[in-house]
Amino acid sequence: MFFASDNAGPAHPKVMDALVKANTGYAMGYGADPIMAEVRQQIRDLFEAPDAAVYLVINGTSANALLLATMCQPWQTIFCTDVAHIHEDECNAPEFYTQAKLSLVPTTAGKMTADALRTKIKAEETRGVHGPQRGPVSVTQVTEKGTVYTLDEIKALTDVAREYGLLTHLDGARFANALVALGCTPAEMTWKAGIDAVSFGGTKNGALGVEACVIFDPKLAWEFELRRKRGGHLLSKHRYLSAQMQAYLADGLWLDMARAANARCVQLAEGLRQHNTARMLFDPAANIIFFDMPRRDHQRMLAAGAVYYVMSGDPDHGDPDEMLTARLVTDWSMTADGVSRFLDLLQG
User: Which residues form the Aromatic amino acid beta-eliminating lyase/threonine aldolase domain (predicted)?
Assistant: First the structure.
């Protein structure tokens, strides 16, 4: 009954096997290994983007920060939501690497609208040399509230960005979960919808630690390479990143794992709807649920071994009837039986 985070789940055995297989003999470092050449082509084929620049880093924070730095000048501002991972959970790494600021767009259910984005963009670049200049837009998919932008919603945001000559970045830490939820292709969710660069996540979906930085304009490639090296994120024994990504993509494993995680989230949501005192805050679209429940129920669940984050208040102290917000996240390895045990305990 472990629902704290998809970061906490195991890596898939096929990913681990690929690492063992790659750990034989010698291979050139820094991305010159033969596996990386195959991975680069795999990702280009996957995104229907034969000229895309493809690079690997070890985590999502470095992927987001390095891509945004490549797309941004230090005197600019990056437009993102007020709940974006780059704002709330990356310890100012984007600001550190870009030397820019973040302009926060208000959200509904974790998503910004085209109108809200336009309003925020129009408010900047109004003070000449004294104020921040307009920079890239960053969109999180799946959002931090477990919701998913439709293709039309993404296109509406990128259209606004293009009105002002701005690039758009997609934070796809849970890219696969969003993709299977929408039933679309990687190209449709990215460059065909106006996205210029994507952090293509693997770590949260069964990899040990690897993310792909996919840049659809190859003119940005060399700057990214320099920033990756300067920032300390060019791994010398790069083949261990390459091997993970190769296994992740092989035979659609990445999609199979996302489907499994999303299916367990659907099972959880159905059970929560039947509980008298639990109330979901957003309609879960992928593998994350936010819900309110009385403190007494949280105490009972946590004491019985359920593991998840209570996001508001102290679950151990206070009014037993006070409603506290919590988050449940399912990963590829969560079983139907594990969800059933949680729901049976919930119904108590």
Answer: 3-281
